[in-house]
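Sample pair:
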Amino acid sequence: MVSLEDIRAAETRIAGHIIRTPLVYSPTLSERTGARVYLKLEMLQKAGSFKVRGATNTILSRIDAVREHGVVAASAGNHAQGVAVAAHAAGVRATIVMPSWASIAKQEATRGYGAEVLLHGSSLEESIARAGELARGGMLFIHPYDDDEVIAGQGTIGTEILEDLPGTDLIIVPVGGGGLIAGIATAAKALRPGIRIVGVQAAACPSAPEAVSAGTPVRVSAQATIADGIRVAETGSRTFPVLRDLVDSIVLVSENNIADAMLLLLERKHIVAEGAGAAPLAALLGGSIAIPAGSTVVLVISGGNVDSAQLFRIVRQAMARQGRILRFSVMLNDCPGALAGLLSVIATQGGNIVHIDHTEGAGDVPVMMARVEIEVETRGREHADALLDAITNAGYPVTTGS
């Protein structure tokens, strides 16, 4: 198993190659929880996630062996970019095997960091198999999580947290294959034995808690999740002992909780976090972790690499679920002033119209009538309900959910 000495060596090795990310206090989250809540902003790391730490440590610890043939990795996201950045900084050639469905944005980002991208396979497992074939030709295969140098590199987040905030009582960490939490737990428990380490995984892919329950890594059926960075169907064999022995608990969060956390980070802290990065906040706000009043809590915001179109959809859906975006339709008499009357009611109630569609002559719209579909921004569920009541009381038949 990785030791604190290994992590300290990694810290020295990668200094100057990575960003020492800030640890910032959140008044909003502290007020909500009664604790002192801080955010470790790994989304500000090179390539947008913590992955560059482990990749840099792995490459630099074996630099003489990789100069000739380079390194190879398989990933559809953050690991790909982390390895590409680390290899480029070390002057080493990198080849990244990505599944055919990997997003174009992530392919181009990986190429932009200097790596050669090979598209192979319809699953990540097939991509990993191809990377293994390349490694047999002399290239060094860098595993995304199940490797001691990778774990030690990620563990430098733990030492940074406790150097910046020695009195930390609890660190909440996203869990996928386990490399990040294994490194942080190893460092934190060695430096502050009484500290609590809690892992968070998406309920759509509960491989970490299932492994702890079974006493060994087990493969689970992984469903689609917006936290794709922690969608790992089986915990690593090298990371599992740390999960078992040093992590106090692992909780699961829903897709809605993750989306709400992403929206909160964006609006209150102006932080763009991917689903995996927002998972610790989702767990904190969801009430699944006991937080003693006055305790000092750190959330590891592990990455910010989220596709812009996906982020837009997540934010819109979260706002609609919270009642902050209200969608409804009304059938109006198709005559002058009818629409103006409806809009006047909305304005009087303080609703902000963000989209309107006026349809007449459609097959399902009666002659002399028009269907108006409206999207209104509100202050929340109570305001949305009051707005609907006002429209109905003004004589307009409302259909919601359109």
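The mean pLDDT is 94.
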